[in-house]
């Protein structure tokens, strides 16, 4: 028996939960993620590996990655291919499975990546791959480009993920106790399961459905991440049928996925007994968007050891031993001496300052506060809110000097997101000599850790209620960096004013238009004066972020909840 076959075999003897996600951030250097969704998937699996929840993950190999970002002299994003070689990190699977797409047979092979924990656990990740010589050249790149291509490309990708993924798990002999869809991209898996568990038509009474819906529902868990209707994948039935033929009878599919268009979220909702949003506020919004469905809440969390900088990890090892496995222990962080917390932060900050100089040539002053902001550059995240009134920003900086570090990629087809990047660079030029500022190209997990640990304040200014959760502020909390944020996503739960960080504006639906003024006021009157004038008071907030937020908003807590409430229900 070949080595590769042996490798999957060690995972097939005990029942597992199959976790499906279009993107998974396995390592910073493997470019199979575009942002928060993929990082969350990676953190979920890292936590499962740590605490021994038996899982197997399924995703696409995305050989061409998302993209590598460069910035031209005018401040415009340039996209480079980010090809990676799966053979360097993973083992080829022995099985291949066939799908019929557009009247052609498409063979799906794949790779086994073994995601390892900090302790001794492993979670197998299957990276599906259609780049096989047997395939028609038109089909070899279906699994190449993360979120690339047009609608028909996306349908094919989602067919490979959902239907191909189920077939691959079966071909490899996995023994499965449940299926978890991380966002709606993988919802075609429900159709594959319906087909597998169909009753034979012999014993059916007239009009009785051949499909065992309750059985499939019982097996499925669905986590939704998108708080706006327009953000959910919807496909044209003509296109779906052209590509997939008759996946099930069309009447049944329309009942489950919508009459006019095939809505992947509806499909997942209708075939999952456990559905959840990723923060309390997000679940409320989802219940309004999808009346009649019970939407539970499992608020997101981040993986403790992945998102803690070395200086903080060393400090926690000394003062809170066991924190990696049981991040709840960080609720004891208030007892860590102030000097230790401040020294660890200075070390992380120096590393960020070095990184900024290395990447951009900008020399920041480690003795002045740094405001950090990094996320996908897309309109609702409002990366430019801080620059709404440059005169006001300058006047604040004259009283209490500060520096700004930003980063983030815009999707290649998101014109508004790209414009944001250009606008940020224009502001940077305007503020030269007054407010030191840098934009770090090619945001990834490594840069994220530098930024969330080396900044003094972590900023987040999304348009309510579009931030389903947000997770970078949770990463900041693990590094004693308080967040200053609009009350949306997880911050509705995480903000204790002046204790774990600060709110921008209030929680009213009308506050969006006043967020810039609220941000300036809070910076000028509360945040910067505390940093400058009351160091013990500032360190108390740093510790508040650790003891109240890192202790709770971690993926160990999140994974334990999925395991007990969704998988073992
Ligand atoms: C954590 C992370 C994100 C998500 O951050 P948000 O605050 O949820 O926007 C995106 N990209 C990378 C590289 C990350 O590490």
Describe the structure in your own words.
With 569 residues, the protein is an alpha/beta fold. Helix content is 39%, strand content 17%. Helix 9 links the parallel strand 13 and strand 14. Helix 2 crosses helix 19 and helix 3 crosses helix 4. The site of pyridoxal-5'-phosphate has 12 residues, from helix 2, helix 14 and helix 15.
Question: How would you briefly describe this protein structure?
Answer:
The chain is an alpha/beta fold and 569 residues long. Helix content is 39%, strand content 17%.
Amount of beta strand: 15-25%
The helix content, as a percent range, equals: 25-40%
This entry's quaternary arrangement is single chain
Number of domains: 2
State the low-pLDDT regions, or none: none
What is the alpha-carbon Rg in Å? 24 Å
CATH superfamily of the largest domain: Glycogen Phosphorylase B
Largest sheet: 10 strands, mixed
End-to-end distance:
38 Å
Spell out which ligands are present.
Answer: pyridoxal-5'-phosphate
Q: What shape does the CA trace take?
A: globular
Would you spell out the secondary-structure blueprint of this structure?
Blueprint: H1 3-12, E1 16-21, H2 36-51, E2 55-60, E3 68-71, E4 77-80, E5 91-92, E6 97-101, E7 104-116, E8 122-129, H3 151-171, E9 176-182, H4 188-196, H5 213-219, E10 220-223, E11 234-236, H6 237-244, H7 250-257, E12 261-263, H8 264-270, E13 274-277, H9 280-289, E14 295-297, H10 310-319, H11 338-360, E15 370-374, H12 390-399, E16 403-407, H13 415-430, E17 437-440, H14 445-454, E18 457-460, H15 472-478, E19 483-486, H16 491-494, E20 501-504, H17 515-533, H18 535-550, H19 555-567
Parallel strand pairs: 1-2, 1-9, 2-8, 9-10, 10-13, 13-14, 15-16, 15-18, 16-17, 18-19, 19-20
Antiparallel strand pairs: 3-4, 5-7, 6-7, 7-8, 11-12
Helix pairs in contact: 2-19, 3-4, 3-6, 10-11, 11-14, 14-15, 15-18
Pyridoxal-5'-phosphate is lined by residues 35-36, 39, 375, 443-445, 448, 470-472, 475.
């Amino acid at each position: 028996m070949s080595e590769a076959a042996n490798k999957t075999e060690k995972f097939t003897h005990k029942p597992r939960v199959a976790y499906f996600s279009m993107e998974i951030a396995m390592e910073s250097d493997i470019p199979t993620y575009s942002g928060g969704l993929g990082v969350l998937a990676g953190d979920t699996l890292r936590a499962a590996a740590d605490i021994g929840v038996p899982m197997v993950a399924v995703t696409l190999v995305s050989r061409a990655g998302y993209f590598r970002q460069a910035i031209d002299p005018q401040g415009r994003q340039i996209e480079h291919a980010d090809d990676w070689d799966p053979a360097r990190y993973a083992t080829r699977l022995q099985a291949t499975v066939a799908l019929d797409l557009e009247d052609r047979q498409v063979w799906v092979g794949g790779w086994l990546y073994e995601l390892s924990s900090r302790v001794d656990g492993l979670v197998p990740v299957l990276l599906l791959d259609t780049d096989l010589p047997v395939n028609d050249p038109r089909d070899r790149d279906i699994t190449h480009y993360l979120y690339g291509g047009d609608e028909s490309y996306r349908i094919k990708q989602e067919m490979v993920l959902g239907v191909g993924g189920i077939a691959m798990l079966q071909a490899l002999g996995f023994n499965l106790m449940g299926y978890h869809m991380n966002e709606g991209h993988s919802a075609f898996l429900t159709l594959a399961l319906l087909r597998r568990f169909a009753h034979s038509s012999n014993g059916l009474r007239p009009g009785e459905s051949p499909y065992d819906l309750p059985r499939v529902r019982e097996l499925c868990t669905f986590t939704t991440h998108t708080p706006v209707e327009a953000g959910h994948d919807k496909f044209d039935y003509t296109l779906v049928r052209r590509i997939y033929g008759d996946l099930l009878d069309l009447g049944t599919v329309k009942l489950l996925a919508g009459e006019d268009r095939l809505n992947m979220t509806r499909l997942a909702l209708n075939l999952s007994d456990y559905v959840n949003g990723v923060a309390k506020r997000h679940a409320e919004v989802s219940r309004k968007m999808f009346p009649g469905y019970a939407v539970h809440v499992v608020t997101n969390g981040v993986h403790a050891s992945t998102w803690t900088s070395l200086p903080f990890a060393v400090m926690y090892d000394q003062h809170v031993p066991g924190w990696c496995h049981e991040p709840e222990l960080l609720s004891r962080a208030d007892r860590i001496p102030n000097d230790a917390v401040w020294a660890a932060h200075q070390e992380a900050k120096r590393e960020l300052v070095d990184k900024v100089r290395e990447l951009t040539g900008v020399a920041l002053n480690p003795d002045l506060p740094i405001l950090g902001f990094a996320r996908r550059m897309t309109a609702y995240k409002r990366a430019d809110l801080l620059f709404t009134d440059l005169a006001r920003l300058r006047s604040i900086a004259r009283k209490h000097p500060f520096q700004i570090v930003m980063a983030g990629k815009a999707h290649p087809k998101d014109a508004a997101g790209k414009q944001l990047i250009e606008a940020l660079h224009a502001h940077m030029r305007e503020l030269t000599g007054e407010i030191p500022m840098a934009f770090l190209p090619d945001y990834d997990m490594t840069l994220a850790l530098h930024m969330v640990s080396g900044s003094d304040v972590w900023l987040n200014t999304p348009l309510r209620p579009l931030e389903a959760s947000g997770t970078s502020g949770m990463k900041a909390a693990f590094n004693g960096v308080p967040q200053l944020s609009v009350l949306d996503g997880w911050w509705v739960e995480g903000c204790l004013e002046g204790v774990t960080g600060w709110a921008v504006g209030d929680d009213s639906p009308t506050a969006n238009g006043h967020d810039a003024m609220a941000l300036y006021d809070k910076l000028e009157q509360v945040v910067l004066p505390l940093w400058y004038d009351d160091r013990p008071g500032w360190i108390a907030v740093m510790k508040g972020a650790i003891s109240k937020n890192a202790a709770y908003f971690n993926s160990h807590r999140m994974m334990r909840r999925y395991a007990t409430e969704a998988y073992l229900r």
